[in-house]
Design goal:
- The structure holds two protein chains of two kinds.
- Chain A is built from twelve helices and no strands.
- By secondary structure, chain A is mostly helical.
- Chain A has one domain.
- The radius of gyration of chain A is 19 Å and the shape is globular.
- Helix content of chain B is about 35%, strand content about 25%.
- Chain B has two domains: about 220 residues, 3-Layer(aba) Sandwich (Rossmann fold); about 80 residues, Alpha-Beta Plaits (2-Layer Sandwich), CATH 3.30.70.
- In chain B, strand 9 and strand 10 form a beta hairpin.
- In chain B, helix 3 crosses helix 4 and helix 4 crosses helix 5.
- In chain B, the strands form three sheets. Chain B has a six-stranded mixed sheet, with helices on both faces. In chain B, strands 2-1-4-5 form a four-stranded antiparallel sheet.
- Classes of the chains: A mainly alpha, B alpha/beta.
- At the A-B interface, helix 1 and helix 5 of A face helix 2 and helix 3 of B.
Chain lengths: ~240, ~325
């Protein structure tokens, strides 16, 4: 079995022992549930669009909390030493931790399928599953990118709090600020184009039901970028 | 097996390890001895490829630590200071994870886990969560992990610190048993440990190797002589003078002042050294009795490794870790 997969499995099981993960999961599902409840009224369209859009905003804060310990805890407890003195490469470690977290993220989303079930039972025959499917694809891509950012921030510090806050800050700038800027009508072209490269703009197509490869590539590249940077952070230790 | 040449590490202006060189042949158990802050752990971390050296090279099992890092780590079992472990995992789960990380196949892994659990006396805590274990057990889990893949070389950083006397004795016995089959390098500042477990010792102080050799060689190297301690009741100055006149005696030192501190009143303890390393107990005893001073105790005290250690590290400590001059 590849070393990255070994590390991914360990990381995944470690999530299930972590109280922080359960708290984050609980809060996330609670807020999603409330939003869904609010939306699940007669007369509202049978779609998860609003929920999906809100989820992205929630994830800006939830994912950093989930990922804050990934490497920061290894630095602070010293377990990084036993990890890096095993015949393991930095890439294995980063990819492994990323995959483990991504899998946990998918597990986190599973309870939201309940909403789909509820919509289906109350809209027999008329539920359009297309946007729902693409919405989930979009959320997973967003989650992957956010996890990569969270992992990167976790690699930079021993303090989990600093990792969480800095990751949230980055995600805030990349997600929420451009959205806010786009609501201001008068914006010079340069800033507008920049704001368009934001997570939110790239994501909304998915929740609408559109699977556009350019959006897919955006998320893949952003994820790969942050994973690459994390590998470099780990490798830099070899030159200090 | 372990070959170190001019290894150095500086953290900014501070030189933590200064041109350390030594060789450890296959099967030998070597003690890396030194006071706290001497550079033992730093040297070990360089050998295990955890931190890069600033200068110098080293090879383990023929592989260079900088250029062939992965092969070095495959041949190595390492027990770091403070034994960091994943607190939420169970013992067997952790060992299984480490085995998988080293690409051990399942059947082999299972066999080796049984073996190390047995060898490190972890049988009763196999299914316990690591966070719930006492320090002694956690240390043994770390040791089990180091042994798991049957590495050619073991590097153990203070393997007995924090253990109770029984555990210390058992761990030392385990290390002794493993020597020969494995090449072992362990660091410690407990001198009896070196004498009990190691074939050879390398003494490091303030980042430099100050001595190397078997414990016997080390004791001899500083020309620390054995001395005879004699306790008798008599006036200090006269005792000193009389003993100095004994043939073969090169130096007499009164240890307890004018005998005032001895509760029985005026018992004097004298340390008598002989330049030719002669056992002068008989002559000393005869002299004391001839002068009519009641003799209470007479014994021969061998040169200790502790004296050697203190002498050798004190000189180095005076010099202090070298400040790297700015280029």
């Amino acid at each position: 079995m590849s070393r990255a997969v070994v590390i991914a499995r360990r990381e995944l099981s470690s999530y299930f022992y972590s109280p922080v993960a359960y708290v984050a999961m609980f809060l996330f599902l609670l807020v999603c549930g409330l939003l869904f409840w609010d939306d699940f009224q007669p007369g509202h369209p049978a779609a998860m669009r609003t929920i999906f859009d809100w989820m992205v905003w929630l994830l800006v804060f939830v994912v950093p909390v989930l990922c804050m310990g990934l490497l920061a805890q290894e630095w602070s407890t010293g377990t990084i030493e036993t990890l890096m003195t095993a015949p393991v490469g930095e890439t294995d470690v980063v990819v492994g931790k990323f995959l483990g977290s991504l899998f946990f993220f998918v597990v986190l989303l599973v309870p939201t399928l309940l909403y789909v079930v509820m919509l289906a039972t109350h809209n027999v025959g008329r539920l359009d599953l297309g946007p729902i499917f693409s919405g989930y694809v979009g959320i997973v891509l967003v989650g992957a990118m956010f996890i990569a950012v969270g992992l990167f921030c976790s690699s930079l510090t021993r303090s989990q709090v600093v990792a969480a806050v800095s990751a949230a800050a980055i995600l805030f700038v990349v997600t929420i600020v451009p959205w806010w800027a786009s609501t201001k009508a008068t914006l010079p072209t340069f800033w507008r184009t920049l704001a368009d490269q934001s997570v939110y703009r790239r994501y909304t197509d998915f929740s609408r039901g559109v699977l556009d490869t350019s959006n897919l590539i955006f998320f893949v590249i952003a994820t790969a970028l942050f994973l690459f940077l994390t590998v470099k952070v780990l490798e830099s230790r070899r030159w200090k | 097996m372990i070959s170190v040449s001019e290894l150095s590490k500086s953290y900014g202006p501070v030189l933590a390890v200064d041109r350390v060189s030594f060789e450890v042949p296959k099967g030998e158990v070597v003690g890396f001895l030194g006071p706290n802050g001497a550079g033992k752990s730093t040297t070990m971390k360089m050998l295990t490829c955890y931190i890069p050296p600033t200068n110098g090279t080293a090879t383990i099992n023929g592989f260079d630590i900088f250029h062939q890092s992965e092969q070095v780590r495959e041949s190595l079992g390492y027990l770091p200071e403070n034994v960091p472990l994943y607190q939420e995992m169970k013992v067997e789960e952790y060992l299984d994870f480490r085995g998988q990380l080293r690409k051990m196949l399942r059947a082999d892994r299972r066999k080796r886990i049984d073996y190390v659990v047995n060898r490190c006396w972890l049988g009763s805590v196999r299914n316990r969560i690591i966070g719930h274990l006492s320090k002694g057990y956690r240390q043994r889990v770390g040791l089990a992990d180091a042994l798991l893949h049957n590495p050619a070389v073991l590097i153990l950083d203070e393997p007995t610190v924090g253990l109770d006397p029984t555990q210390i004795r058992e761990t030392r016995k385990l290390i002794r048993d493993l020597g020969g089959e494995h090449t072992i390098m362990l660091s410690t500042h407990i001198l009896p440990e070196v004498e009990a477990v190691c074939d050879r010792a390398i003494v490091i102080a303030a980042g430099r190797v100050v001595a190397q050799g078997t414990t016997e060689e080390l004791r001899q190297s500083r020309r620390l002589t054995a001395r005879v301690l004699v306790e008798c009741r008599g006036p200090a100055r006269e005792v000193e003078a009389a003993l100095s006149r004994v043939s073969g005696v090169s130096k007499v030192e009164i240890l307890n002042g004018d005998g005032a501190s001895s509760g029985d009143g005026k018992y004097v303890t004298a340390a008598v050294r002989s330049a030719e390393q002669r056992d002068v107990r008989e002559e000393v005893a005869r002299t004391v009795v001839q002068h009519g001073w009641p003799l209470r105790e007479i014994r021969l005290e061998h040169a200790t490794l502790e004296e050697f250690f203190i002498q050798v590290t004190a000189t180095q400590a005076m010099a202090g870790p070298e400040e790297v001059s700015s280029q």
